[in-house]
Amino acid sequence: MASSLKAIKRQHITHRFFLATALTIATVSLVGIVFTLVKATGAATILMSLTISEPPTVSAKPAVSVHGGGSPASLVAYLVNPPSPKAEPEPTVETNLSSLDLSVDLTTSTGDSFNLGTVAIENQTDVPQLRDSRPAFSGNVGIPKAFLFIELHSDPASRVTVSLNADEDGFWSWRPSQPITTGPHTFYLTVFDPDGDTKLGQSGFQFEILSNEVDAASGLVDQTAGLGQPRRTTDIPDSLLDQRQVLFDVRVELLGEGEIKEINPGDQVLAKVTLFNIGAPGQLVDAAVTYSLVNYDTDQVIFHQSETIAVATQTSFLKTFDTRPTLAKGNYYLEVLVAYKDTEASAFEHFLIGGQSVITLPGNNKVDVSFAFQLLMVILTVAIFFTYFEYKQVESLGKKIHQVTEDDLRREGMIS
Protein backbone atom coordinates (compact mmCIF):
# COMPACT_ATOMS: atom_id res chain seq x y z
CA MET A 1 0.00 0.00 0.00
CA ALA A 2 2.80 2.40 0.88
CA SER A 3 4.54 1.82 -2.43
CA SER A 4 1.32 2.25 -4.38
CA LEU A 5 0.48 5.43 -2.46
CA LYS A 6 3.90 6.85 -3.18
CA ALA A 7 3.46 5.97 -6.88
CA ILE A 8 0.09 7.72 -6.91
CA LYS A 9 1.64 10.81 -5.31
CA ARG A 10 4.45 10.82 -7.87
CA GLN A 11 1.90 10.56 -10.70
CA HIS A 12 -0.11 13.32 -9.08
CA ILE A 13 2.94 15.62 -8.98
CA THR A 14 3.88 14.74 -12.57
CA HIS A 15 0.40 15.43 -13.94
CA ARG A 16 0.21 18.69 -12.00
CA PHE A 17 3.44 19.73 -13.73
CA PHE A 18 1.97 18.76 -17.12
CA LEU A 19 -1.19 20.69 -16.26
CA ALA A 20 0.81 23.82 -15.43
CA THR A 21 2.82 23.43 -18.65
CA ALA A 22 -0.35 23.03 -20.73
CA LEU A 23 -1.90 26.09 -19.11
CA THR A 24 1.27 28.09 -19.82
CA ILE A 25 1.28 27.03 -23.48
CA ALA A 26 -2.42 27.87 -23.82
CA THR A 27 -1.88 31.28 -22.22
CA VAL A 28 1.13 32.07 -24.42
CA SER A 29 -0.81 30.97 -27.51
CA LEU A 30 -3.74 33.18 -26.57
CA VAL A 31 -1.42 36.14 -26.00
CA GLY A 32 0.19 35.41 -29.38
CA ILE A 33 -3.22 35.39 -31.06
CA VAL A 34 -4.14 38.71 -29.45
CA PHE A 35 -0.75 40.17 -30.43
CA THR A 36 -1.22 38.98 -34.02
CA LEU A 37 -4.68 40.52 -34.21
CA VAL A 38 -3.48 43.80 -32.72
CA LYS A 39 -0.54 43.94 -35.12
CA ALA A 40 -2.75 43.02 -38.05
CA THR A 41 -5.65 45.38 -37.36
CA GLY A 42 -4.01 47.96 -35.12
CA ALA A 43 -7.10 47.95 -32.91
CA ALA A 44 -6.58 49.13 -29.36
CA THR A 45 -8.96 49.29 -26.41
CA ILE A 46 -9.18 52.40 -24.29
CA LEU A 47 -9.19 51.81 -20.51
CA MET A 48 -10.36 48.22 -21.14
CA SER A 49 -13.64 49.51 -22.56
CA LEU A 50 -15.42 48.22 -25.62
CA THR A 51 -14.52 51.32 -27.61
CA ILE A 52 -12.18 50.41 -30.47
CA SER A 53 -9.91 53.07 -31.97
CA GLU A 54 -9.00 52.50 -35.61
CA PRO A 55 -5.47 53.78 -36.33
CA PRO A 56 -4.26 54.87 -39.76
CA THR A 57 -3.19 52.12 -42.16
CA VAL A 58 0.18 53.82 -42.67
CA SER A 59 2.63 55.50 -40.32
CA ALA A 60 6.05 57.00 -40.98
CA LYS A 61 9.41 57.24 -39.27
CA PRO A 62 11.61 60.37 -39.27
CA ALA A 63 13.83 60.85 -42.29
CA VAL A 64 17.33 59.39 -41.99
CA SER A 65 20.19 60.93 -43.99
CA VAL A 66 22.02 58.63 -46.39
CA HIS A 67 25.19 59.13 -48.39
CA GLY A 68 26.58 57.74 -51.61
CA GLY A 69 24.79 55.74 -54.25
CA GLY A 70 25.06 58.41 -56.94
CA SER A 71 22.61 61.15 -57.85
CA PRO A 72 19.44 60.45 -59.81
CA ALA A 73 18.65 62.28 -63.03
CA SER A 74 17.76 65.90 -62.28
CA LEU A 75 17.94 69.41 -63.69
CA VAL A 76 21.15 70.23 -61.84
CA ALA A 77 23.53 69.41 -64.68
CA TYR A 78 21.45 71.28 -67.24
CA LEU A 79 20.84 74.39 -65.14
CA VAL A 80 24.26 74.68 -63.49
CA ASN A 81 26.12 74.12 -66.77
CA PRO A 82 23.82 75.54 -69.44
CA PRO A 83 24.92 74.76 -73.00
CA SER A 84 26.06 77.55 -75.25
CA PRO A 85 23.78 78.56 -78.13
CA LYS A 86 26.20 77.00 -80.62
CA ALA A 87 26.40 73.73 -78.72
CA GLU A 88 22.65 73.44 -78.34
CA PRO A 89 20.63 75.70 -80.64
CA GLU A 90 17.11 76.32 -79.44
CA PRO A 91 14.87 74.72 -82.07
CA THR A 92 11.30 75.78 -82.54
CA VAL A 93 8.53 73.99 -80.71
CA GLU A 94 7.26 72.51 -83.98
CA THR A 95 10.69 71.05 -84.74
CA ASN A 96 10.89 69.55 -81.25
CA LEU A 97 7.50 67.94 -81.52
CA SER A 98 8.23 66.52 -84.93
CA SER A 99 11.58 65.01 -83.93
CA LEU A 100 10.24 63.57 -80.69
CA ASP A 101 6.84 62.46 -81.98
CA LEU A 102 5.54 64.05 -78.77
CA SER A 103 1.92 63.64 -77.70
CA VAL A 104 0.18 65.35 -74.78
CA ASP A 105 -3.40 64.56 -73.76
CA LEU A 106 -5.55 66.43 -71.25
CA THR A 107 -8.35 64.23 -69.89
CA THR A 108 -11.13 64.96 -67.40
CA SER A 109 -13.02 62.61 -65.11
CA THR A 110 -16.15 63.12 -67.22
CA GLY A 111 -14.44 61.69 -70.31
CA ASP A 112 -13.54 64.91 -72.15
CA SER A 113 -10.15 64.60 -73.87
CA PHE A 114 -7.94 67.13 -75.65
CA ASN A 115 -4.90 66.22 -77.74
CA LEU A 116 -2.49 69.13 -77.33
CA GLY A 117 0.82 67.54 -78.26
CA THR A 118 1.13 69.41 -81.53
CA VAL A 119 0.03 72.78 -80.15
CA ALA A 120 2.55 75.64 -80.05
CA ILE A 121 1.61 77.81 -77.10
CA GLU A 122 2.40 81.00 -78.99
CA ASN A 123 -0.08 80.07 -81.70
CA GLN A 124 -2.74 78.40 -79.55
CA THR A 125 -6.15 79.69 -80.60
CA ASP A 126 -8.55 77.49 -78.61
CA VAL A 127 -8.19 77.05 -74.87
CA PRO A 128 -9.77 73.95 -73.31
CA GLN A 129 -12.18 74.95 -70.56
CA LEU A 130 -13.19 72.26 -68.10
CA ARG A 131 -14.73 71.84 -64.67
CA ASP A 132 -12.58 68.99 -63.43
CA SER A 133 -10.14 70.54 -60.94
CA ARG A 134 -7.86 67.47 -61.12
CA PRO A 135 -7.48 66.67 -64.82
CA ALA A 136 -5.05 63.98 -65.97
CA PHE A 137 -2.05 64.80 -68.17
CA SER A 138 -0.50 61.99 -70.20
CA GLY A 139 1.25 61.26 -73.46
CA ASN A 140 4.25 59.73 -75.16
CA VAL A 141 7.65 61.27 -75.87
CA GLY A 142 8.97 58.42 -78.02
CA ILE A 143 12.13 58.00 -75.89
CA PRO A 144 12.42 55.19 -73.33
CA LYS A 145 13.11 56.44 -69.81
CA ALA A 146 13.27 60.07 -70.93
CA PHE A 147 13.61 62.55 -68.06
CA LEU A 148 10.61 64.90 -68.01
CA PHE A 149 10.09 68.22 -66.28
CA ILE A 150 6.52 69.50 -65.91
CA GLU A 151 5.54 73.05 -65.00
CA LEU A 152 2.05 74.16 -64.03
CA HIS A 153 1.61 77.94 -63.75
CA SER A 154 -1.58 79.18 -62.13
CA ASP A 155 -3.13 82.52 -61.21
CA PRO A 156 -2.25 84.10 -58.87
CA ALA A 157 1.48 83.43 -59.09
CA SER A 158 1.48 79.78 -58.08
CA ARG A 159 3.95 77.45 -59.76
CA VAL A 160 4.20 73.67 -59.40
CA THR A 161 6.99 71.63 -60.96
CA VAL A 162 7.20 67.85 -61.32
CA SER A 163 10.16 65.63 -62.21
CA LEU A 164 9.56 62.14 -63.56
CA ASN A 165 10.77 59.59 -66.07
CA ALA A 166 8.87 58.06 -68.96
CA ASP A 167 8.51 54.29 -69.01
CA GLU A 168 10.20 51.81 -71.34
CA ASP A 169 7.80 52.78 -74.14
CA GLY A 170 8.16 56.53 -73.63
CA PHE A 171 4.74 56.83 -72.00
CA TRP A 172 4.11 59.18 -69.05
CA SER A 173 1.17 60.38 -67.00
CA TRP A 174 0.58 62.80 -64.16
CA ARG A 175 -2.42 64.02 -62.21
CA PRO A 176 -2.28 66.73 -59.54
CA SER A 177 -2.77 65.32 -56.06
CA GLN A 178 -4.56 68.52 -55.00
CA PRO A 179 -7.35 70.37 -56.87
CA ILE A 180 -6.27 73.16 -59.21
CA THR A 181 -7.72 76.59 -58.56
CA THR A 182 -10.38 78.10 -60.78
CA GLY A 183 -9.02 80.23 -63.61
CA PRO A 184 -6.41 80.10 -66.40
CA HIS A 185 -3.37 77.80 -66.22
CA THR A 186 -0.28 77.21 -68.33
CA PHE A 187 1.29 73.77 -68.76
CA TYR A 188 4.86 73.12 -69.93
CA LEU A 189 6.44 69.74 -70.64
CA THR A 190 10.20 69.71 -71.25
CA VAL A 191 11.89 66.53 -72.43
CA PHE A 192 15.49 65.58 -71.61
CA ASP A 193 17.65 62.57 -72.25
CA PRO A 194 17.36 59.88 -69.52
CA ASP A 195 20.25 61.43 -67.53
CA GLY A 196 18.73 64.92 -67.58
CA ASP A 197 21.79 66.46 -69.23
CA THR A 198 20.44 67.45 -72.65
CA LYS A 199 17.22 69.22 -73.44
CA LEU A 200 15.48 67.56 -76.39
CA GLY A 201 12.24 69.49 -76.74
CA GLN A 202 9.36 71.30 -75.12
CA SER A 203 5.60 71.55 -75.44
CA GLY A 204 3.24 74.02 -73.80
CA PHE A 205 -0.41 75.02 -73.81
CA GLN A 206 -3.00 76.90 -71.79
CA PHE A 207 -6.26 75.67 -70.31
CA GLU A 208 -8.87 77.01 -67.92
CA ILE A 209 -10.67 75.52 -64.92
CA LEU A 210 -14.25 76.74 -64.69
CA SER A 211 -16.25 77.20 -61.51
CA ASN A 212 -18.56 74.43 -60.35
CA GLU A 213 -21.18 76.83 -59.07
CA VAL A 214 -24.75 75.57 -59.35
CA ASP A 215 -26.94 77.32 -61.95
CA ALA A 216 -29.70 79.22 -60.13
CA ALA A 217 -32.34 78.39 -62.75
CA SER A 218 -31.74 74.66 -63.22
CA GLY A 219 -30.11 73.86 -59.90
CA LEU A 220 -27.43 71.86 -61.77
CA VAL A 221 -23.80 72.32 -62.78
CA ASP A 222 -23.26 72.43 -66.55
CA GLN A 223 -20.35 70.01 -67.04
CA THR A 224 -19.74 70.79 -70.72
CA ALA A 225 -20.29 74.52 -71.18
CA GLY A 226 -17.25 76.44 -72.34
CA LEU A 227 -15.16 73.54 -73.67
CA GLY A 228 -12.75 74.59 -76.39
CA GLN A 229 -13.41 78.31 -76.33
CA PRO A 230 -11.18 80.87 -78.10
CA ARG A 231 -8.37 82.20 -75.96
CA ARG A 232 -9.34 85.34 -74.10
CA THR A 233 -5.91 86.22 -72.73
CA THR A 234 -2.49 86.70 -74.28
CA ASP A 235 -0.63 86.60 -70.96
CA ILE A 236 1.66 83.58 -71.27
CA PRO A 237 4.02 83.07 -68.30
CA ASP A 238 7.55 82.14 -69.26
CA SER A 239 8.88 78.68 -68.55
CA LEU A 240 10.84 78.57 -65.29
CA LEU A 241 13.27 76.25 -66.99
CA ASP A 242 13.92 78.62 -69.88
CA GLN A 243 14.34 81.53 -67.45
CA ARG A 244 16.69 79.49 -65.20
CA GLN A 245 14.36 80.18 -62.27
CA VAL A 246 13.85 76.65 -60.99
CA LEU A 247 14.51 76.85 -57.24
CA PHE A 248 14.23 73.22 -56.21
CA ASP A 249 14.18 69.79 -57.78
CA VAL A 250 13.24 66.55 -56.05
CA ARG A 251 13.53 62.88 -56.97
CA VAL A 252 12.07 59.87 -55.20
CA GLU A 253 13.10 56.23 -55.62
CA LEU A 254 11.39 53.29 -53.96
CA LEU A 255 13.86 50.66 -52.83
CA GLY A 256 13.26 47.06 -53.82
CA GLU A 257 13.33 44.69 -56.76
CA GLY A 258 11.43 45.07 -60.02
CA GLU A 259 10.39 47.99 -62.19
CA ILE A 260 7.14 48.41 -60.25
CA LYS A 261 7.75 47.69 -56.56
CA GLU A 262 5.30 45.27 -54.91
CA ILE A 263 4.83 45.60 -51.16
CA ASN A 264 3.05 43.13 -48.90
CA PRO A 265 0.36 44.62 -46.65
CA GLY A 266 2.07 45.13 -43.30
CA ASP A 267 5.53 45.53 -44.81
CA GLN A 268 7.58 48.72 -45.03
CA VAL A 269 7.71 51.14 -47.94
CA LEU A 270 11.28 52.42 -48.21
CA ALA A 271 11.85 55.57 -50.24
CA LYS A 272 15.09 57.34 -51.03
CA VAL A 273 14.39 61.05 -51.49
CA THR A 274 16.93 63.45 -53.01
CA LEU A 275 16.52 67.22 -52.80
CA PHE A 276 18.43 69.67 -54.99
CA ASN A 277 18.79 73.32 -53.97
CA ILE A 278 19.15 74.92 -57.40
CA GLY A 279 18.06 78.47 -56.66
CA ALA A 280 20.71 79.15 -54.00
CA PRO A 281 23.29 76.34 -54.09
CA GLY A 282 25.55 76.28 -51.05
CA GLN A 283 23.17 78.36 -48.96
CA LEU A 284 21.48 76.34 -46.22
CA VAL A 285 17.72 76.76 -46.49
CA ASP A 286 14.79 75.05 -44.80
CA ALA A 287 12.38 73.45 -47.23
CA ALA A 288 8.96 72.08 -46.28
CA VAL A 289 8.70 68.49 -47.53
CA THR A 290 5.28 66.82 -47.75
CA TYR A 291 4.69 63.11 -48.28
CA SER A 292 1.42 61.74 -49.62
CA LEU A 293 0.55 58.08 -50.14
CA VAL A 294 -2.40 57.87 -52.50
CA ASN A 295 -4.56 54.97 -53.67
CA TYR A 296 -4.30 55.35 -57.44
CA ASP A 297 -7.57 53.49 -58.08
CA THR A 298 -9.75 55.48 -55.66
CA ASP A 299 -7.76 58.76 -55.34
CA GLN A 300 -7.91 58.31 -51.56
CA VAL A 301 -5.03 59.87 -49.66
CA ILE A 302 -4.16 57.24 -47.05
CA PHE A 303 -1.21 59.10 -45.54
CA HIS A 304 -0.15 62.74 -45.42
CA GLN A 305 2.76 64.19 -43.47
CA SER A 306 5.02 67.24 -43.59
CA GLU A 307 8.44 67.92 -42.14
CA THR A 308 11.21 70.47 -42.60
CA ILE A 309 14.49 69.43 -44.22
CA ALA A 310 17.60 71.63 -44.36
CA VAL A 311 19.27 71.65 -47.79
CA ALA A 312 22.49 73.40 -48.80
CA THR A 313 23.15 72.02 -52.28
CA GLN A 314 21.95 68.43 -52.32
CA THR A 315 20.75 66.04 -49.67
CA SER A 316 19.50 62.46 -49.75
CA PHE A 317 17.57 60.72 -47.02
CA LEU A 318 15.67 57.52 -46.41
CA LYS A 319 12.00 57.74 -45.50
CA THR A 320 10.31 54.65 -44.04
CA PHE A 321 6.55 54.12 -44.13
CA ASP A 322 5.06 51.30 -42.01
CA THR A 323 1.88 49.83 -43.45
CA ARG A 324 -0.81 47.84 -41.66
CA PRO A 325 -1.62 44.26 -42.72
CA THR A 326 -5.19 45.53 -43.28
CA LEU A 327 -4.10 47.98 -45.99
CA ALA A 328 -6.22 47.33 -49.09
CA LYS A 329 -4.45 45.76 -52.04
CA GLY A 330 -4.16 47.79 -55.24
CA ASN A 331 -2.17 50.46 -57.07
CA TYR A 332 -0.64 53.29 -55.06
CA TYR A 333 1.83 56.10 -55.54
CA LEU A 334 4.05 58.12 -53.26
CA GLU A 335 4.26 61.85 -53.97
CA VAL A 336 6.98 63.98 -52.40
CA LEU A 337 6.41 67.73 -52.61
CA VAL A 338 8.91 70.44 -51.67
CA ALA A 339 7.56 73.93 -51.04
CA TYR A 340 9.95 76.87 -51.08
CA LYS A 341 8.96 80.50 -51.54
CA ASP A 342 6.27 80.65 -54.25
CA THR A 343 7.12 77.39 -56.01
CA GLU A 344 6.42 73.73 -55.36
CA ALA A 345 8.53 70.90 -56.76
CA SER A 346 7.24 67.36 -56.65
CA ALA A 347 8.06 63.85 -57.76
CA PHE A 348 6.20 60.58 -57.43
CA GLU A 349 6.68 56.84 -57.75
CA HIS A 350 4.12 54.08 -58.29
CA PHE A 351 4.00 50.82 -56.34
CA LEU A 352 1.67 47.88 -55.75
CA ILE A 353 0.22 46.55 -52.51
CA GLY A 354 -0.30 42.81 -52.97
CA GLY A 355 0.54 39.33 -51.75
CA GLN A 356 -0.01 37.94 -48.27
CA SER A 357 -0.42 40.22 -45.26
CA VAL A 358 2.60 40.15 -42.95
CA ILE A 359 3.58 41.41 -39.53
CA THR A 360 7.06 42.64 -38.66
CA LEU A 361 8.77 41.06 -35.67
CA PRO A 362 11.92 42.27 -33.86
CA GLY A 363 14.95 41.94 -36.09
CA ASN A 364 12.86 43.01 -39.13
CA ASN A 365 11.62 39.42 -39.56
CA LYS A 366 8.41 39.08 -41.55
CA VAL A 367 5.71 36.54 -40.68
CA ASP A 368 2.65 35.69 -42.75
CA VAL A 369 -0.35 36.86 -40.70
CA SER A 370 -2.63 34.04 -41.89
CA PHE A 371 -0.02 31.34 -41.22
CA ALA A 372 0.85 32.74 -37.78
CA PHE A 373 -2.81 32.99 -36.78
CA GLN A 374 -3.63 29.45 -37.93
CA LEU A 375 -0.54 28.00 -36.22
CA LEU A 376 -1.33 29.72 -32.94
CA MET A 377 -4.95 28.54 -33.13
CA VAL A 378 -3.80 24.94 -33.60
CA ILE A 379 -1.38 25.22 -30.66
CA LEU A 380 -4.10 26.80 -28.50
CA THR A 381 -6.61 24.07 -29.38
CA VAL A 382 -4.13 21.26 -28.60
CA ALA A 383 -3.11 23.00 -25.37
CA ILE A 384 -6.74 23.31 -24.26
CA PHE A 385 -7.42 19.61 -24.87
CA PHE A 386 -4.18 18.65 -23.11
CA THR A 387 -5.02 20.94 -20.20
CA TYR A 388 -8.44 19.34 -19.80
CA PHE A 389 -6.95 15.83 -19.93
CA GLU A 390 -4.30 16.66 -17.33
CA TYR A 391 -6.86 18.36 -15.13
CA LYS A 392 -9.00 15.21 -15.10
CA GLN A 393 -5.91 13.11 -14.32
CA VAL A 394 -4.93 15.35 -11.40
CA GLU A 395 -8.49 15.35 -10.15
CA SER A 396 -8.70 11.52 -10.29
CA LEU A 397 -5.36 10.98 -8.57
CA GLY A 398 -6.26 13.53 -5.92
CA LYS A 399 -9.40 11.58 -5.08
CA LYS A 400 -7.40 8.35 -4.75
CA ILE A 401 -4.94 10.01 -2.37
CA HIS A 402 -7.74 11.41 -0.20
CA GLN A 403 -9.55 8.03 -0.14
CA VAL A 404 -6.74 6.40 1.93
CA THR A 405 -8.10 5.78 5.44
CA GLU A 406 -6.37 5.58 8.83
CA ASP A 407 -6.89 1.82 8.89
CA ASP A 408 -5.09 1.53 5.52
CA LEU A 409 -2.12 3.43 6.88
CA ARG A 410 -2.03 1.35 10.13
CA ARG A 411 -2.28 -1.86 8.12
CA GLU A 412 0.72 -0.81 6.04
CA GLY A 413 2.69 0.05 9.15
CA MET A 414 2.90 3.71 8.26
CA ILE A 415 1.30 4.68 11.61
CA SER A 416 0.97 2.84 14.92
In short:
With 416 residues, this protein is α+β, with helices and mostly antiparallel strands. It has helices spanning 2-41, 76-80, 93-100, 369-402, 406-411, and strands spanning 44-45, 52-53, 58-60, 64-66, 103-107, 113-115, 126-127, 129-130, 136-140, 147-154, 158-165, 171-174, 183-192, 199-209, 229-230, 248-254, 261-263, 268-277, 285-295, 301-311, 314-323, 330-340, 343-353, 358-361, 365-368.
Structure overview:
This protein has 416 residues and is of the alpha+beta class. Among the domains are: 2-52 and 372-411; 76-245, Immunoglobulin-like. The chain has helices at residues 2-41, 76-80, 93-100, 369-402, 406-411; strands at residues 44-45, 52-53, 58-60, 64-66, 103-107, 113-115, 126-127, 129-130, 136-140, 147-154, 158-165, 171-174, 183-192, 199-209, 229-230, 248-254, 261-263, 268-277, 285-295, 301-311, 314-323, 330-340, 343-353, 358-361, 365-368. The strands form six sheets. Strands 8, 10, 11, 13, 14, 17, 19, 20, 22 and 23 form a ten-stranded mixed β-sheet that branches. Helix 1 packs antiparallel against helix 4 (369-402). It starts with a helix and ends in a 5-residue tail after the last helix. It comes from Candidatus Buchananbacteria bacterium RIFCSPHIGHO2_01_FULL_44_11. The chain crosses the membrane at residues 371-391. This is Bacterial Ig-like domain-containing protein.
Q: Strand count, sense and closure of the main sheet? A: 10 strands, mixed
Number of helices: 5
Helix proportion: 10-25%
Q: Which CATH C-level class of the domain at 76-245 is it?
A: Mainly Beta
CATH-defined architecture of the domain at 76-245: Sandwich
Radius of gyration: 34 Å
SSE arrangement, N to C? HEEEEHHEEEEEEEEEEEEEEEEEEEEEHH
What fraction strand?
A: 35-45%
Sum up the overall morphology in one term. Answer: elongated
Class based on secondary structure composition and strand pairing: alpha+beta
**Low-pLDDT segments:** 43-54, 85-98, 214-221, 223-227
- For the record, give the distance between the C-alpha atoms at the N and C termini, rounded to a whole number: 15 Å
CATH topology of the domain at 76-245: Immunoglobulin-like
